[in-house]
Amino acid sequence: MKTLSNSNPALILIDIQQGFDNIPYWGGERNNPGAEANARKLLDHWRASNLPLFHIQHCSVNPNSPLAEGNPGNAHKQIVQPLSGEPVIKKSVNSSFIGTNLQQQLDAAGIDTIVIVGLTTEHCVSTTARMAGNFGYHTYVVADATAAFAKTGIKGEHYNAETIHLTALAQLNNEFATVLNTDEVLNALKKNDDFL
């Protein structure tokens, strides 16, 4: 059975952009402050191992959004700043596959396994993971390298960021993706462990 270490997995870094530092705009509370540092740990491993990786950049069509092109918040966070030659794929909706050539690039390179990190768990990470699973990719989502924001329910009830994060991951796990943490991914890459 295929393992992470023999599958040439692609790291997909979703929307790790400066605009998400505007926490009041996104809900007033965010969980997992170490998500970006964990994403960087994985990015460092992918770079050192010369594994495929893709930076996804959300370019909101709402000109007032911090993530709109031309706004400072559209820029990647420095901690995961793309290096020259690393692919950057721009999108304007939740899924990294819609309106982009991500699927074509993955398929052209013979990549059938992806590892997803980034922002936010409940929106673009979840939507991308669901589509990836439906497309047949072996999909992993890294719980401690993703983060969520608080949400208001349909009756005005408050859901804190950690609850949103954990329930989003629970809906993905063993259905669309396998949810791991950073150390589990790194250990699997080193030890030939199989989580599929």
Give the count of structural domains: 1
Mean pLDDT: 95
Unreliable runs? none
Q: Give me the Rg, rounded.
A: 16 Å
Q: Architecture, according to CATH?
A: 3-Layer(aba) Sandwich
The CATH top-level class label:
Alpha Beta
CATH structural fold name: Rossmann fold
> Strand tally, please?
8
Largest sheet properties: 6 strands, parallel
Overall form: globular
Order of the strands making up the biggest sheet: 3-2-1-4-5-8
Q: Give the oligomeric state.
A: single chain
Please provide the ordered H/E string of secondary-structure elements.
Answer: EHHEEHEHEEEHEH
The helix/strand class is: alpha/beta
Fraction of helical residues: 25-40%
What report would you give on this structure?
It is a single chain. By secondary structure, the protein is α/β, with parallel strands linked by helices. It has a single domain (4-191), classed as Rossmann fold. Helices cover 32% and strands 20% of the residues. Strands 3-2-1-4-5-8 form a six-stranded parallel sheet, sandwiched between helices.
Keyphrases for this structure?
196 residues; alpha/beta; Rossmann fold; six-stranded parallel β-sheet; two-stranded antiparallel ribbon; 8 strands
Summarize the model shown.
The chain has 196 residues and is an alpha/beta fold. It has helices spanning 23-26, 35-48, 102-108, 121-135, 161-172, 182-191; strands at residues 10-14, 53-58, 88-91, 113-119, 138-147, 151-152, 158-159, 178-180.
Topology, element by element:
Blueprint: E1 10-14, H1 23-26, H2 35-48, E2 53-58, E3 88-91, H3 102-108, E4 113-119, H4 121-135, E5 138-147, E6 151-152, E7 158-159, H5 161-172, E8 178-180, H6 182-191
